[in-house]
Amino acid sequence: MGTSIEFYDFYVYATAAVLVFPHLFFPADDPTAATLQSLATFAIAFVARPVGSALFGHFGDRVGRKATLVASLLTMGISTVLIGLLPGHAQIGVAAPLLLALCRFGQGLGLGGEWGGAALLATENAPRAKRALFGTFPQLGAPIGFFLANGVFLALSELMGEDAFLSWGWRVPFLLSAVLIVVGLWVRLTLHETPAFARVLAEGTRAKTPVAEVFRTAAPAVALGTFIMLATYVLFYLMTVFSLSYGTSPDGLGYERSEFLVLLLVGVVFFGLTVPVSGLLADRFGRRPTLLVTTACILVFGLALGPMLGSGSTPVVLLFLILGLTLMGFTFGPMGAVLPELFPTRVRYSGASIAYNLAGLLGASVAPYIATWLASSFGLGWVGGYLALAAAITLGALLISPETRDTALDEV
């Protein structure tokens, strides 16, 4: 529930960055330039996420998983609600995009501390033979949050005209976050500490400076985790933010906003369905074999991106979204177990969070921007090449990574 709420907040911004913010916060004669400026603020959160992973990771490894998860949810939620209250460029000029960027930084800070705690809550409570399956539950927050965020935007698009939507309707998804925060806090305040962290507390072996200890004792694991996640991030933000921007742009496919959102939501259903399947496969066959096959498929899919997305045929575009988001489910699902398994308990919150969010900084933060620039300058084929390159880097990291399926978390 917690990751669904936080990813809802995060994706509400991603959708608005394509559909709304270029018009209200970044007025420009060139629509492509306005979109690029909006996507630049989208990237700010990925700069903030490693900062959030270090900050919340410190307290997660020192104070505990429960208190840190509550703090990260509040940070994300307050930032999201404030975005829904911001005046636009027409009202306060250049201060509008600056305040938007500040709130986006707050979103990134909160999500930077969210994922690691949620993944640890699942995996540190899991039986060893089902750890990857348990680790897929926080991963389900991504498709559920995305589905909720875009479902709200789709409903608003159907219920009101364009002028009303740009005037005030776009604020509704951000303000709805206040209700979700209350639900999330109620759930999280009932949690107990995980057995692994409780053992660290009992033995008095907490790290004094978890972040420093991670880089001193587990830097190779941080690097491996970062590059193992790279293709996952590039794939997801090409399939969602970039495809939405390109699909609804007059210079792209020219779909109506509501029409393309429906296609995306169909694809996200397959994302959600394949996440738990990937956990079962990773428990049965191992993390590395599952991810090696999936990443090789992502590389091939990258080479097909240009012809499929650029076809202009709705059935082909829908197939493109289904295939890409199905692969996303298979690559994203096992990460809830893979990254925590690389680190010892005393620094696991910090280590897993930092690796996860450094991958976001290298992969997701710039993916929509780079893809938009490549598509407008050289064509969609180059966007597919960008995805294939990210997949090749991830393949290299997987080939040298250890298999951790049979390792007890206390033995890492």
Give a short summary of the structure.
Helix content is 79%, strand content 0%. It has 412 residues and is an all-alpha fold.
Kindly describe this structure.
- GO terms for molecular function: symporter activity.
- It is a single chain.
- The protein is 79% helix and 0% strand.
- It is mainly alpha-helical and 412 residues long.
- The protein has a single domain, classed as Growth Hormone, Chain: A.
- Helix 1 (2-19) packs antiparallel against helix 11, helix 14 (219-248) runs antiparallel to helix 21 (380-400) and helix 16 runs antiparallel to helix 17.
- The longest helix has 32 residues, at 31-62.
- It starts with a helix and ends in a 12-residue tail after the last helix.
- The model has no long low-confidence stretch (mean pLDDT 86).
Considering the chains and any ligands shown, give keywords for the structure.
single chain, 412 residues, mainly alpha, Growth Hormone, Chain: A, transport, transmembrane helix
Helix content: over 70%
DSSP strand (E) fraction? Answer: under 5%
Strands, total number: 0
Major beta sheet summary: none
- General shape: globular
Order of helices and strands: HHHHHHHHHHHHHHHHHHHHH
Number of helices: 21
Q: Class by helix and strand content? A: mainly alpha
CATH fold assignment = Growth Hormone, Chain: A
Radius of gyration: 20 Å
**How many structurally independent domains?**
1
CATH class: Mainly Alpha
CATH 4th-level superfamily: MFS general substrate transporter like domains
- Report low-confidence residues grouped into runs of 5 or more: none
